Amino acid sequence: MRSWSEGSLTSNVIRDGSHCRDAFGGTHCDVLLVDRHDVSAERDRPVDCRHRDVLFDDLRVELQFLQPGGRFIVAVMVATPASPCALVASAEVRVAFGGTVGAGRIDNSLPGAPSCHFTVKKSNLGLDGEAVVFITPEQSAATFKLAKKEVPGAVSVSGVGTAAFYNPHTSAIELLKGKAVASAQAVFLNPGGAQPNPTKLKADVVVLARAVAKHL
Fold first, then answer.
1. Fewest CB atoms within 10 Å of the CB: 42, 103, 139, 196?
2. In which element (H, E) is residue 148 found?
3. Contact present, 143 and 149 (Cβ < 8 Å)
4. Do 113 and 143 contact (CB within 8 A), yes or no?
5. Which of 170, 119, 129, 167 is nearest to 147 (CA)?
């Protein structure tokens, strides 16, 4: 499907409709209506039961009922979240940490919470490491305030989004902007060796977090 579903949650109806034809003239068993409009013409391939590019599992069903001729399902489609790598550019990571910065790499190891990792070589901290940014899932202004109280050693940071705090134990800044909560973290480890200067480390993460806040 093309990006007709971008934006906030959109009401949709899926129904059995084997009599219907798509924009390519082919018959199909599923019709997808968005805001009461058939979007078949927006597809880049025919609608086909065997190629269900919109799955019932991807929808939150609000109402379903039976009617002669087929089952109707009223659902809400959850918009695909933006890539976490859109939160900051490699050039902005380089401004924060210096050195040579690689392209962002998405990590989907944590279901529902993708993060973007930027490799940093020869940083201004004297170590190689990486910068990590992501939207914190299922968080709100209320949970942000609670986290700030509960995180040991949390330090308020000004000039970053609506509000922000730095966690010295994880070298990460949790920031709030509007209703969105995001994280900006520096990971520069040197087991058994000299550690980054904590003041410089925090200052670099603040620069990174400010860049993230601009893109929220």
1. 103
2. helix 141-150
3. no
4. no
5. 167
